[in-house]
Design a protein that fits this description.
Helix content is 57%, strand content 8%. The protein contains five helices and four strands; from the N terminus they run E-H-H-H-E-H-H-E-E. The chain has a four-stranded mixed sheet. The longest helix has 27 residues.
Length: 170
């Protein structure tokens, strides 16, 4: 399946939020709110958010091992970009991903029920990283006037390719 890179990241964000919408009420309903667990979760959560923002800033850099920009610049041009941009293409057709939803739901629900209900919010932490990556990619696409795509190369679907933002001049 060929999908825009930004849409791929936003799909992860949407599925993480959906997993939290399902797992958090169940975990908090069964386990209840605990004051001690809430303080620890707040400290760990704030540290995780600060760490995610820091690593998101690194992802926006050109550093070889952590920067996303160098990966975007290594993307290959598409032979037929018009084949990937049908008029009816939109994010809503690619947003739901049942497999990713259950991969996020089951561990967060299990840890939320077994340990502390605050752990049912772990997918929110993952969604922050995906949201930062989507923002970095959207900024790069706008700056370079191209669209990034995943899944064009059948043997390696993680490789990126790009197509021009607008139709080619006549």
């Amino acid at each position: 399946m060929v999908i825009r890179y930004v849409h791929h990241q936003l799909m992860g964000v949407a599925m993480a939020w959906c997993a939290c919408v399902v797992s958090a009420p169940v975990a908090f309903g069964v386990r209840g709110l605990s004051a001690a667990g809430g303080e620890v979760a707040l400290i760990v959560g704030m540290g995780s958010v600060i760490g995610s923002v820091f690593f998101g800033m690194l992802a926006a850099s050109r550093l070889k091992w952590v920067g996303e920009i160098s990966v975007f610049e290594e993307a290959v041009a598409l032979n037929d970009p018009e084949a990937l941009r049908p008029a009816e293409y939109s994010l809503r057709h690619h947003l739901p991903n049942k497999g990713l939803f259950f991969v996020l739901l089951v561990p967060s629900l299990a840890t939320g029920l077994a340990l502390t209900p605050w752990l049912s919010l772990i997918p929110l932490w993952l969604s922050l990283d995906w949201l930062i990556r989507a923002g970095v990619a959207a900024r790069w696409e706008k700056k370079n006037a191209v669209l990034l795509w995943r899944g064009q190369v059948p043997n390696s679907p993680w490789e990126l390719s790009y197509s021009p933002l607008g139709p080619p001049p006549p």
